[in-house]
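Changelog-adjacent note: as of this version, every example in the card shows the full chain rather than a window. The one below runs 248 residues end to end.
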Amino acid sequence: MSAFDTPKRAQDVDGRHKGDHDVEAVMARGPDQNREGARIESEPGHAAPVDPKVGRAYRLTIWGIALGILIFAGNVVLWAIAIGNNQLFKDGVDWVYDVALYGIAALVFGRDERAEKLAALGIGAVMAVAGLHTLYDLWDKILRPRPIELFTLGFSAASAILIAYLIIGVLWRFRAESNPVIKATWLSSRNDAISTTGFALLGLAARLLPVRWPEYLFDVFVAFLCFQASWAIWRATRQSRGRAKASL
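Full-length structure tokens:
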């Protein structure tokens, strides 16, 4: 090669430039590979990749939420029994649905696809029971009207709002995760914070009005939301099964 020849690009044995191979290698990488081509480490048993550190942190967080709500609700129930307050007792028992929802998420996290579908059906069943419980409580309030106690109602509303936003805070770091269980609990906690604030304030205002029918309508609306969520979960699970059978 003379001094006036331009340097040629490096070629492989097949005659193509080395840069062409590099581009093809990048295009061939899967979504779970890093720049060096190594697969990203992920915990087994997930529908989407989950970093082991994230998985451990989420598992501890979700169990902490479920146990924390359980302890708080237990203390409220014991306090209600001690002072003989039926409304406070009912508000304490209502927390059992949140314990069940976060407990199911904690149990199913890291399992397989079948476990996630069963968990979805379990959450739907919990929603349906919550709706029936709300209607039963409405019927009981109509038969035996409960006296309005500003302190009790204020405590229940304030504690529900505070806990909802505390849950938002501890789940904030997981908001960008693609795992369906993590995403579901994050979206659920976000929606709970919004709805709990509105429902608690609306329920408190309705109970303080001179008439009781706004409170009764509010209970019917809450029951409807529970049944609607249960139906949506059941339908989504059934559609998922249909797609799985069609792909076989």
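Structural remarks: The chain has two domains: 1-40, 52-246.
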